Give the backbone structure.
Amino acid sequence: MNLKSIQSSNFLGQKIKDPILLDLSINSEYANSSNWFEQINVLSHQPQIYYGGYLEKRFFYKNEMLFGQGDDARIFHLGFDVWMPQGTSIYSPYNGIVHSFKNNNALLDYGHALILEHSSKLHPTFYSLYGHLNKFHTQFEVGDKIQAGQKICELGSVDENGGWPPHLHLQLIEDLGEYVGDYPGVCSYNQLEYYKKNCPDPTFLFTRYAR
């Protein structure tokens, strides 16, 4: 599924000047830091925008109770992250409807998440997921029409976004299955080939507006 050919709007609603790629892989400078949360939290509140993460093998999925172990450990990140302050407004990149939303309030989960459903003449139905939000989007109802460029959500605080430094998790999904307000945002090595196809790289939604 080539979503790059579909016209999209800037989901940040602003010009993106000189963004910085943030390495959060198992080989990054943060991987062995005891205060990685504080370090990344500082970056989230800078004027400079930090981004990245698609298919990144991340160091902070070490909790075996939450993410498993061995080849079944869910350590590959399936979405794209933008690290920005809580309350930052997010806008829909495409026309669509509200599919679902849910507060996934377990530790290191999405917190509040919103899913939009989209379609075009050139492509079948697909979905966009926005995670780590506050409650702004709960003003909508399932089935509400959304226009490209319309404000849809805001970034949440640590207390409402699953316990993360403030950021947006944006993920594109081809087949949502039976999920409602939720979808795996990380996967294991054994699942990687399937999810690479079902969750195409959304980074172009950011980089096409960056300079």
